[in-house]
Structures are given as C-alpha cells and as structure tokens.
Design a protein that fits this description.
By secondary structure, this protein is an alpha/beta fold. It contains two helices and four strands.
C-alpha cells in the first residue's frame, strides 16, 4: 500500500505575514505563510492585543497561502472561530 502525504513538510522556517486592517465596520487579519511554531504564537499574541480594541466589530480572519500548519496553529484557528462572532475565510492572495 502506497502512503501519500496530504500536507506540506515543515522546513523549520516560521515565515508568517500578518496584515491587520482596523476598519470602521470590522477588524481583519490577513494571514499568509507558516501557521506553526512561533508564527502561530505571533498570531495568537496579535489577536490577544487586538481584542482590547475590536469592541463590537466582527473579527475577520482571512487565511491565504498557508504553507504549513501544526496542531497549535489548527487549535488556534479553532479557538478564534469559537470565541465569538467571527468570519474565517480562505482567501486567494493577490500578491
């Protein structure tokens, strides 16, 4: 039986890009790159910091071109999704 991988192997580089959009009607994180290790913790810290200014606006998390995600990254996305009125989107990057 041939085993196939359905994930991108982790190369040890945490290359996360987070763009924060503080709009009048919503607060949005655009996330690209590796959502694992220290990078996932960086997103968590950004979310915790932003939570004090988000107020009643919906939080939109746009995930595009994520090339690696470890269990902590998956759990973080689940936690963000379950923590309130949010919109989690898979986005196609225009960059």
């Amino acid at each position: 039986m041939k085993r196939t991988r359905n994930y991108v192997p982790y190369d040890g580089i945490d290359d996360l890009t987070i763009h924060v959009h503080d709009g009048a009607t919503s607060f949005r994180f655009d996330v690209e790159g590796s959502l694992s290790g220290n990078s996932a913790r960086e997103l968590e810290q950004s979310w915790l910091t932003a939570s004090s200014v988000i107020g009643d606006r919906p939080l939109v998390i746009s995930v595009g071109n994520v090339n690696c995600m470890d269990p902590f990254g998956r759990a973080l996305l689940r936690q963000l999704h379950e923590s309130g009125p949010h919109d989690l989107q898979a986005a196609h990057s225009s960059r």
